[in-house]
Amino acid sequence: MAVTIKDVAQLAGVSPSTVSRTCKDHPSISEETKEKVRQAMQKLGYEPNFQASNLASQNSRTIGIVLPPSARETYENSFYLEAIRGISSFCNQKQYINTVVTGNTEEELLSVIKTMSRSGQVDGFIVLYSKQDDIVINHLYNEGFLYVLIGKAYQNINQTIYIDNDNILAAQEATEHLIKQGHKKIAYLGGDNSLMFSADRRAGYQLALTMNGIAINPDYCQELPFKKKDQIKAINQLLSSDDRPTAIVVCDDILAFTLEDICEELKLSIPKDIAIVSFNNSLIAKLATPKLTSIDVNSYQLGIEAASQMINHIENPNLMATKIIVPHHLVVRESSSLDR
Amino acid sequence: MAVTIKDVAQLAGVSPSTVSRTCKDHPSISEETKEKVRQAMQKLGYEPNFQASNLASQNSRTIGIVLPPSARETYENSFYLEAIRGISSFCNQKQYINTVVTGNTEEELLSVIKTMSRSGQVDGFIVLYSKQDDIVINHLYNEGFLYVLIGKAYQNINQTIYIDNDNILAAQEATEHLIKQGHKKIAYLGGDNSLMFSADRRAGYQLALTMNGIAINPDYCQELPFKKKDQIKAINQLLSSDDRPTAIVVCDDILAFTLEDICEELKLSIPKDIAIVSFNNSLIAKLATPKLTSIDVNSYQLGIEAASQMINHIENPNLMATKIIVPHHLVVRESSSLDR
DNA sequence: TGAAATTGTGCAAACGTTTGCGCAAAAATG
DNA sequence: CATTTTTGCGCAAACGTTTGCACAATTTCA
């Protein structure tokens, strides 16, 4: 049997409560006694029992991490693992634990989340996506259960805690980067616009055009379908049109990679005929030929900040909802720049 | 305050113990009573308190997931997220939770693992890698703490539980696939051989050659350095030698991708001049040009099986150590086959 | 029909903490 | 020096389960 608070108390010649208070550095224990207790703890290799401590203080010191319900493809994006690593790393430091929640459908997720919250398995959830009309997010909101979004909230914006990049600004910068290279015919390829990041990036793209006096061409602004085949078809169509764009902002490296492939097939040279800027700065951006200019969104730090906010709100329940903006930066590579 | 076992007991007109036993479907409670209790639980939306239950039954229903201590690049491999998803999914079903442990160095990992095990935060660890002389694995072994390896154990093989692919067989099949295409000059590019999977794949490669009467050329069998620059140098050297191989087995898709790049630079056509087979069947294999023939190792299922074994051993502590071999399969694509 | 075995349920003591409250002893105050 | 205040610590009751044991009620058996 592991060493308990009583063993320490006995060795130090104090009561269990004193030991407990020493652990939390409670001010009403004299430094002298604390030292005595600490030595006893050290000697016995004492570590407070997590379950007992949680039961007594009515919390779980556990954070749920919700992956988007989705097909396998999505997860190839290294964004998720990096965010998880960030969260874990912060949790490890703060003596919290975290648990990944995953499911194929929203319903599956929801049911796991319901039992987790009811049984007190977690103190809150970090949701690794933000999407309109998502039943999971809606449920958490309606129940008043603590959650943090990675991505921008789409409703109840002032009441929800979220960590995000400034995707509008990022896309704006990406677009302006292309404009500076002399491009005027710039397209945007996005994914499902009910996902907040995709919608925001589109908005930033449009903003940049407007601010630079470039008219928005609706044909240039595409919400690509989910299936890869249909994506390829749509891209092919865009690139074969008479009024072909000379530069494209793409919402994701993986998609940009596919785009590069199509360009090659169509004998369009990158960046000469088509310049590309994309998002995430994942390994794929570095491996692609030509290498992709990409906006790094600091997914690891998104995770860190999310965990930090979460723990902050767990420990101070009446804190107001905060929004955190994590910086991004443009990494210029071959796909957008002739002079490099 | 959430609904407790006492509330249910009161509503059902029984004692708390009866409710508890009903939850576990204890045989000594009559079906009649159970039904009554179940209705009460239903009505109140009761969910047993996780912390209290764990404290009373002296476990944590929590599994630690240990990521390899490493630089960022490693994690781009979708293997890890898939394994985590597998573990999570199984845990979610079984009402277990899981917590990711990550750190930049072995020491950092070790310290987190030590406090986690001492404080009873976890019942066991699933280690997502297997490496020789790893201080984390050694610590777990020496302390007699429950752990499951994903990858082959390198020592105390009969006392450790591990989940693995048959990497020897897989590499053998990969190599034989190349031999069947008429190749005789086949090279192997591996990573750090202290990582079990890399060593095994090399062994399988050599076995296939031997069994097919092909002499092993030491120059063909390379353990590539960690830094990308050095990797490129080594590969360039291999491909520029007078006695250039005509086919290569590569231990990882990412590395194979780099290899493709170098081939293109050297104007070597794939698969005509160089055929390639690699491992993991990640998105990158499908996106590469030409698409990579790759061995799918079923990382999601590796996770599932690991979690399953873990829970099995938590609940039956005197079970013997099992080894689980998860099937792989060769996915043939353009990089190895002219006739497709 | 009475004793023994079986069945179904409840009592109460754990599990290892946290924390409000009480109470000595020490320090400060007049 | 008596009184009040402060300081430092311990007592004991929670927290919500699980589970060994006791025991009444029922069934089985001789």
Note down, in words, how this protein is organized.
The structure is a homodimer of 340-residue chains. Chain A has 340 residues and is an alpha/beta fold. The first copy, chain A, has helices at residues 5-12, 16-23, 31-44, 50-57, 79-94, 106-118, 135-143, 167-180, 196-211, 228-240, 253-265, 283-287, 299-315, and strands at residues 62-66, 97-101, 124-127, 147-150, 161-165, 186-190, 221-223, 247-250, 275-279, 293-296, 323-326, 329-331. In chain A, the strands form two sheets. The first copy, chain A, has a six-stranded parallel β-sheet, with helices on both faces. In chain A, strands 7-6-8-9-10-12 form a six-stranded mixed β-sheet. The first copy, chain A, is elongated, with a radius of gyration of 25 Å. The termini of chain A are far apart. Chains A and B meet through helix 4, helix 5, strand 2, helix 6 and helix 11 of A and helix 4, helix 5, strand 2, helix 6 and helix 11 of B.
Q: What keyword list fits this structure?
A:
homodimer, 340 residues, alpha/beta, six-stranded parallel beta sheet, six-stranded mixed beta sheet, elongated, DNA-binding
